[in-house]
Amino acid sequence: MAMGLHASSRNRGRSGRRAPMAEINVTPFVDVMLVLLIIFMVTAPMLASGVPVELPESRANALDQQPDQITISIDREGFIYVDETLIERGGFPASVASMGCGVGGSGPLVTLRADRALDYGRVMAVMGELNRGGCNSISLVTQGSVEAP
């Protein structure tokens, strides 16, 4: 356990009992902490985005995260998600109207994540609907690339 007993004769009293050792063994604690650290390091990138999208590659600079940011994702089948909420067919214009992009010109930052296998027309239709709703500042999210096109 956490406390051991010394077996030396100098710590023995006349009764022959052993005195408790006042040191704590921290090795099991460190082992558990390292295992938990590895688990969190492996699972943290999977929690970053809720909608699985295979992004196209680009050498663009990274964007800063903002608190009032709205993420719109289009998966491989063409379904639209607004911050991990699936939007039913035909309901995207109403969802864009509720975002408040056209109010005063200082609406939230909109980031668009689209799967690389999608038709270009589908992505442009979503961007057109965002523009129609007043969201004129749209950031396209890509995966980092090392080589130039």
Features of the shown structure:
149 residues; alpha/beta; Nucleotidyltransferase, domain 5; 2 domains; 5-stranded mixed β-sheet; two-stranded parallel ribbon; 7 strands; 15% strand; elongated
**Radius of gyration using CA atoms only:** 28 Å
Number of H- or I-type helical stretches: 3
In the CATH scheme, the class of the largest domain would be Alpha Beta
Share in helix: 25-40%
Lateral strand order in the biggest sheet: 4-3-2-5-6
Question: SSE order in H/E notation?
Answer: HEEEEHEHEE
Oligomer: single chain
- The low-pLDDT segments are none
Summed up, the domain count is: 2
Strand pairing plus helix content: what structural class? alpha/beta
Question: How many β-strands, per DSSP?
Answer: 7
Shape designation: elongated
Q: What is the overall pLDDT average?
A: 79
Specify the biggest β-sheet.
Answer: 5 strands, mixed
Distance between the termini: 61 Å
* Approximate strand percentage: 15-25%
- Known CATH architecture of the largest domain: 2-Layer Sandwich
